[in-house]
Structure formats: C-alpha cells, structure tokens
Amino acid sequence: MILFKKSEDLRKCLADKKNKGGKTGFVPTMGALHEGHISLIEACRSQTDLCICSIFVNPAQFNDRKDFEKYPISLEMDIEMLAKAGTDLVFVPSIHEIYPKGDTGLETYNLGSLETTLEGRYRPGHFQGVCQVMNRLLDIVRPEYLFMGQKDFQQCLVVKRLIRLLHLAIEFQTVPTMRDKDGLALSSRNRRLTTEQRRFAPAIFQALTYIRDTLIPGDTGPVIETARQILDAAHFKTDYISISNAVDLEPVHVFDGKVKTLALIAAFQGEVRLIDNMLLN
C-alpha cells in the first residue's frame, strides 16, 4: 500500500497505473474507520483492479464547527486497517491541499429538493460541502467506480446527482449497511457514545424494524408515531422519522406497497447525532 499526501503525486501514480490498464475504484472516507468502511474496501477490491481510499475530514460539510472539532481522529489505526484490507493507494491530504484558497465562498450546486429535505433541512449547507469536496476528490482520482455506504442514503443520492451534473463516467455502487450484533449501524460517531448511551442507541434500529414489519398500505402516520415513542423511551431527541420514496426522498404519507420506499431516522443520543435507514419493500 502506498500513501500520498499531495494530489499531484497521486495523479502521477494513477496516470502510470491507468496506462497499464485495469479498472480503478475509489472509497472516500473521513477516517475513524470501522468494519463498515472495510466492507466498502472489500466491495471495491472485488470489482476493480486498483483500490484507492481517501481519508479527509471535510470542514466544508460541517454546519456546526463544534461537531467538526469533535470528529474522532485515528489516522495510524486507519492506515493499519486499510493495509490489512488490501487497499492499494491511500490519499491523506491536508485541508490546504483540497482547498488552497480556503473552504469558504466555494461553488454551489443545484441539488433540488435533496438540499432542503431531511438531512438537508437539519444540516443547512452540509450537502454543498459534500459536493465541494467530492468534486475535488473525483477530479484528482478520476475513478471508474465509486463506493459509498447505504447508511448515508441521502448523501449517496446527492453524490449521484453531482456525478450527473459534472457529466462524469463513474459507476456508483451503494454498499449495504454494516451493523453490530444489536442492530446499531456502524458509524465513526459511535465512538463518542458513553456506555449508557451505547446501551440505548440500538433503539434506532428497533424503530426502523418496527416500521418495516408493521407498515401496511394506508396512512403512514400511526406507524411513525409509534416509532417515535420507541425513540423517546430510549432517551433519544429526534430530528426526524420519515417514510420516503427511495428515488427522491419525497415523504410517503399514504403507502401503497408498490413504490420503492424506505424509512429514515436522525436522532440525538446526548450530543451524538446518529442516522440510519432501512428499505421497506
């Protein structure tokens, strides 16, 4: 495994390897890696000839500066995990390397309703920041395949839209969410949970499972309300519980059992904000 800190060095290496043929795959991360990230690496390795991973905590996508400052950092452990997983190239740029002119006053993208619903509503500016960094990373790596996790379902939709806006020839692969034995979706933010908070955290999975197992054609309001009660009992402060169209995340108030639908939740356990989702049909 080769580690790069400068984009120009990575570009030169990639140009040489691409001249020799083979498919390139890219896994962008913000570090604090766990087995969910490694599942992305494994998917990338199984479908491509060259697996590239980036580790970059992107300040532009944090609408709360305190959240950015508290984001867990474990670079040495991350690099060790990536090496064991068989990653070929790792890109660990500085903020200045990605944003040489600073990370404010950047370009904006037309994301439609994705920017104002669910995560977009509760984290204004977040998805613009995602697009700003992904534009730069994709320009540096220029992969043929891009791998991201289903846990960040709305972010996946945003990046797919970015790929279309930029007219990039990239095949997007969504990798299923990895979970602990009690159902909690693996997340870098889980490290910030206290022992007691970690005990309550699986209630998000329990609420999603309740929605999936209980939902029948008709009004979705009652099942959402019961899911909210499950979170309340586990001391969650809920941002949203939504049953949405899986194509554009438009809310589904009346379920017909035919349109591809998923449930999405964002809620705080103490100061730690967790998100998760589950396909319903």
CATH top level label of the largest domain? Alpha Beta
Q: Any idea what the radius of gyration is? A: 19 Å
Would you identify the regions where 5 or more consecutive residues have pLDDT less than 50? none
Q: Numbering strands along the chain, what is their spatial order in the largest sheet?
A: 1-4-3-2-5-6
Q: What is the CATH superfamily classification of the largest domain?
A: HUPs
Number of helices: 11
What's the overall geometry?
globular
Please give the alpha-carbon distance between the first and last residues.
Answer: 40 Å
Class per helix and strand makeup: alpha/beta
| Strand coverage percent | 15-25%
CATH second-level architecture of the largest domain: 3-Layer(aba) Sandwich
Extended strand count: 11
Describe the structure.
By secondary structure, this protein is of the alpha/beta class. It is 39% helix and 21% strand. The chain has helices at residues 7-19, 35-47, 65-70, 75-84, 95-98, 119-122, 126-141, 153-165, 195-200, 203-214, 221-233; strands spanning 2-4, 24-29, 50-55, 89-91, 145-149, 171-175, 218-219, 237-245, 254-255, 261-269, 272-279. The strands form three sheets. A six-stranded parallel sheet has the order 1-4-3-2-5-6, with helices on both faces. The protein has a three-stranded antiparallel sheet with strand order 8-10-11. The protein has a two-stranded antiparallel ribbon with strand order 7-9. The N and C termini lie far apart (40 Å).
